[in-house]
Amino acid sequence: MKSYLKTYNITIFCLYGRKYGYGHYSRIKSLTTKFSNKINLITFGDRIKKNEKKFKNYKNYNDINSFINKNFKIKKKSLAILDISNENIIKQSKINIFYKKILKLYNKIIIIDSINNESLFKKIKKKVDCLIIPYQISNLYKKKYKNINLITFPNIFFCDEKLLNSKKNITKKINSCLISLGSTDNLNINLKLLNIVKTKIYSNVKFTIILGKFLKTNYKNMLKKKVKNKKNIIIKEFNSNFDKYLKKNDLIISSSGITKYEALILKKPNIRIYKDKNEKKLDTEFSKIQNLRGFIFDSEIKLFNNYLKKLFFSQIFYTNILKKNYKMLIGLKIKKINTIDARI
Description:
The chain is α/β, with parallel strands linked by helices. It is 34% helix and 19% strand.
């Protein structure tokens, strides 16, 4: 991408805010860390107030309809990167009109996509110069796109590159646990999980809970109040020190997003919490390289609690599963791609 900066005027489109979460913008931050001041950024959803000055130009629209209704000059040597794959976006009736406008305005287009019913490319079925699916996907799924310039995990990932050089220690027993369930929590999963880990049986386990960026203040205060007298539970707001919490904890309980890949890179055991059946389905291939289970929290809460107890307190169970998990992870080779140029 560095060489493309010399040739192309690059504009990145991504989702951000209470409706769409933080994940899309987190990927963009990872991609543009060293040259964000040369990139144009357009977000849909909430406005980014803190980091907007880092970019060459920044604009925010409530939705894609607001963008469609605006007039823009066609620029020569222009490249658009779209990270807007989301079920609510894909369902919008004007998504094809939006993409036709992008085709008209830009010379080259990269889509950072999802799969199944969250896939933008599957919906629009039009020209793209590079399709990036930053997840573990099946070979069968890859064959569907054999005529497309496709990049997938582990050939590309959007995490902090410093994690690659971190020391990887085998987890032999779990004494500490990081819980990070994403930037939003419409189903109150943080509360439900907190009610489990604050029970007496887990009193000797150290828990660090990271509260998502877009949780409501009243909700966050209520969670903090519940652990006021719990010495083994610490609640922190999401911040730039997140990688430190990842490194120092033995087990990561996360949503099914970027954090599970960060745990994978650090060779950490990871339990994924799904909001629904669709999230569980999206995690199918990832589950083959991360030995620990994932759970749909509302319908599998008892299964989750029993599994967690065995993982913490049954020596035969945790010895076998952690040993097998580490062998799987240590065999996975992940290399950071610093440039997408060679594939476009």
